[in-house]
């Protein structure tokens, strides 16, 4: 736990410094603890140290770590969700940050209505234009968002992207700037986007650039928890 505490302090200091340089309030940047491939004891240690928002790539891992749900603890699904796992995702998550197709939106609405639940969603955009990454393409994103149905149980909260995998954080700046501009275009453009304020972008290597470009959430895993060691089937 001591190592996790030290890691947390380092990350929070980086966030604070990045916010200072960008003229932003650190309170407006939420730290998402990416707990994928970490065991339950690591999650419990993080909670004991004040962590409240966790990100999981796989629904099965989320179920094992975050059910039963605990007051004040949020589980976000940050990886793509297969259609046949959406029901379980709704069961465990307070938010799904990787939505990128209309069928998933429609199924999530139906599942939330069925289970009497409201669910936050972020829409993933492949702003790096890399074939290995999921999400809406940059050319289609604007029209897709504008064409979304009026939500009933879903809350359209904003956008998510992953920066370029080049090893140079500055290479992601254009991606992050695009996401911010897209969010700004959409935010409050229609009543259904009244809550469309979130930008989940930036990880360990590029969080400073993401914050400079307006990130409201940064997703940090190994730099908080240390080495990943639990390997679970998809």
Explain this structure.
The protein is α/β, with parallel strands linked by helices. It is built from nine helices and eight strands. An eight-stranded parallel beta sheet has the order 7-6-5-4-3-2-1-8. Helix 4 links the parallel strand 3 and strand 4.
Keywords:
234 residues, alpha/beta, eight-stranded parallel sheet, 8 strands, disordered C terminus
Sequence-ordered SSE layout with sheet pairings:
Blueprint: H1 2-22, E1 30-34, H2 40-48, E2 53-56, H3 59-66, E3 74-77, H4 86-92, E4 95-99, H5 102-115, E5 119-124, H6 138-146, E6 154-160, H7 173-186, E7 198-200, H8 207-212, E8 217-220, H9 222-225
Parallel strand pairs: 1-2, 1-8, 2-3, 3-4, 4-5, 5-6, 6-7
Concise summary:
The protein has nine helices and eight strands. With 234 residues, the protein is of the alpha/beta class.
- Provide the β-strand percentage band: 15-25%
Share of helical residues: 25-40%
Oligomer: single chain
Instruction: Please state the average pLDDT score.
Output: 95
H/E element sequence: HEHEHEHEHEHEHEHEH
* Main sheet strand line-up: 7-6-5-4-3-2-1-8
Query: Would you tell me the structural class of the helices and strands?
Result: alpha/beta
Radius of gyration: 17 Å
Catalogue the unreliable spans: 230-234
> How many E-type strands?
8
Distance separating the two termini: 28 Å
Shape: globular
Tally of helical runs:
9
Largest sheet: 8 strands, parallel
